[in-house]
Every structure is written in structure tokens, then in C-alpha cells.
Amino acid sequence: MQYQSLFCFKGLDNGVRFALISASVYFILLLGFVLLGHSAALLVLGCLLAPVLGLSAYRRMRDAAGPSWYASLVLIPLCLFSITLVYGASLALAVAILVIVVLFSLFFARLPSVAKVKSYHQGYVGPAVTPRSSVNCRRVEPSLGGHVSVADADADADADEYDAEAPHAYESVSEEDNHQWQASSSQQGFFDSMALRPWTHWAKQNQKLLLAVVACLGALVLIAGLFEALTADNEPISELVQATSAQVIAPSREEAKIPDGFSVLLENDVLIIRWLGEKAAEGEIWSLASAQGDRSCAKLSFNDGSYYRPMLVEYMPDTSIEARFSPLDTRAIISDIAMRGSIKLCGYDFSLKGSQSALSKNAVFIPYL
């Protein structure tokens, strides 16, 4: 393929060539996404591929004699798809854009060719096609024996073949364009053959517009890069905040295990009595706020007749039972556990033998004794 034809402004593209260029552009974008991920560099890549796709659509419309501004329609899904890849939008949106791309490509590819060019060069016809050079066609000089050398004969055959094909290369194309293309191929260099001069002339006449477009693209890439950097920096911070808040929310517990099979816990001055119960569904057993539930759990009774009302009694996921008391009763309950003989709660009787020694092993309970 003559790659300069991708940037040609005056040539013609058939439907198959346009479809292949469109598919290649989006394939390159997807490949860049696989290699770079959600990177602002994809916007730069999309900006570099946009002229290739836009000019191919423009040449396709010239081939179909359609409105030139239709070519700009193919750039809309390209921009949306690039932005979707960079900012990690939903997969459904990316698939929807690809469906639109396929529909656009089919529409452009199926447009009938009005030029009716008999010979496309890889789906393209225009000034960027390098015709067969006649430089190697040397003049055949007569020899004494009337013989012609093999090399000269081959060159003459090539010249005849080129002369036979040349008049039909761009048949049905306007004579003015044909004359310009042939002049471009034979007299002008590489840059003229790919129609770079019209672009240079346009850029000189529209310098302000060109600078504005470049500035907008640069600003877009800069904003995308800053957004990506800020998002990446905020992720560790948010994770740290969540971890810190989880540590703050989850209070620490201090435990003293009483020999008769229950434990006394302190959780931010809230006293909890915990023991293993029967298998039951997790949930509330008794609540002082609603006075609903198992009334055997309505009070913690000591053998001397004193009692305290738990705020909440509930089954835990590990089949244990926890009874929470008011912080106002914490000191009195710990003192009674250390000094009394037994307690009764929720139908369970526990001996307090060795409780004072168990509480003294944890320094947190010593101030309450």
C-alpha cells in the first residue's frame, strides 16, 4: 500500500477500502486500550487517527458524488469511543458506539460509485498512485544484424503495455482531474503527489483556526491527564479513610474469662456478659427499649438479691449470647461479679467462683474492683 494515499485530498476510495480503513482505525484504538489501559494517551491516538478516517470518508463521498460534509459524521463516534475508553464508561455504551460505527461504515461502503473507475489501485484512485515508470523504457537502436537485444525488447514491451493501460486508468473521471493527477505523478515530487500543498495553503490562510484546534486538543489531553492523575491519587486516600473509619467504628474489646463458662467484656465503658448458648437464629432476644422478648433475660440477678436490667440481649452469628448493660451500671456490676457467689440470666446459672482473680488478670478491670 502507498501510505501517502491515506492522506490524499483529491483521490477516490471505493467502499471496501473505506470499510477496511474504518475497521483498522478502531482496531488500533482497541489495541492501544489493551496496552495502555484507561490512559489519556488514547485521546492523542484518536486525534492522530481521525484525519485518516475523515479523509477516507471524504474520498468515499467524492467517489459516490455525495455531500462532502457527510465525511464529518464518521468522526463523531470516533471521538465518543476514544472518550469512553479513557474515562472507563460502561461496557454497554462502548458496544452501542461500535454498533453505530458499523452502521456508518455499511452506509458509506454501500454507496454506489458514480465515477465508475475501471481500475482501482487497492481500492484507491488518485494522484498518490505511482504509475509505472517509463524511465526504464530505453530507445531501441537498430543494430547491424537487425536484431534487438532482449533487455530492449522487454523495455519496449513494458512501455507498450503501460501506453495501452494509461489512457484507461482514470476513465470516467473528469479530464481536468485526470490531467492534474498525471502532471502530479510525472512532474511533482512526493509531497505534491499526496496533495499536501492544498493543506499547506489552507493552513496558512486559517492559522488562527488551526491554532485554536491544536489548543483545544492540547487542553483536552491536559484535562484528561490531570483527571486521571487526581483519580489515581484519591484512590489510596479513600482506601486509607475507609480503613481508618472502619478502625474507629469497630471498638476494641477487653475480655476477662470467668471459670464457669462465661466472659465479661468492656467495650468503651459498656459492660457485656457473653456465653455460648443453644443454636438459634441470629437476632434480638430481649430489648429494654421495647420491653419485648424473652422476659427471663429482663434482668441479671445475683445470689444476694440484687439485679440489673440489660439494655439488649441478642444471639450472635457464632451461637453465643451477649447481654449489654448501661455504662451507668458498669462499675457496680463488675464489683458484684467479683464479690458475689453466683448470677442468673436468661435461665442460665453461673458460679462466680474465681471471678475476682480472672478480672484482676486484665488491667482494664482493676479500676472497677
Automatic annotation (TrEMBL):
TM regions (residue ranges): 15-34, 40-58, 70-87, 93-111, 209-227
Q: Tell me which domain of life the UniProt entry assigns to the organism this sequence originates from.
A: Bacteria
Q: Which UniProt keywords apply?
A: Membrane, Transmembrane, Transmembrane helix
Q: What is this protein called?
A: DUF805 domain-containing protein
Organism (species) = Shewanella benthica
